[in-house]
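Entry:
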Amino acid sequence: MEIVWKILLVMAWSAVKFVIGFGLALASGFSLIEVLIGTVGGGMVGVIIYLYLWDLIVHVFRKFVPKKNKPVKFSKTKRIIVKIIKEYELYGVAFLTPLVLTMPIGSIIATTIEPNKWRIKLFMFVSLLFWTLLLYGLKVLFNFDLPGLLHF
């Protein structure tokens, strides 16, 4: 029963921030299948929740607050973000979401770029699977001992 609680904890962290969930899975000594279930499954649960929750939030917000047409001020940071989004679109957002962005932020940005939710889910799934297999492969290849590093 303890393993189920550990997997649920990894899934909960992966639904918010993939890197923390992956590190927790490695620290718990999970096998590859358990890591995949915990990190990819948790990340996808997070993506699905945030995709539909964001639609609900926008719908309720627009119901009570009408849209205003005001000019947008672009800072240097906003220009860089817009350039990246225009250049790489959903591919770049899905690729960066597990490691750089969090699941809520990546899902919200993906929703603004792509209206097709199934396509967003597919790209996020492939990205989560890719990063999980890559990081786990590096761990196995270099015999990386995360619990030993965390022990002071």
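The CA atoms of residues 29 and 59 lie 43 Å apart.
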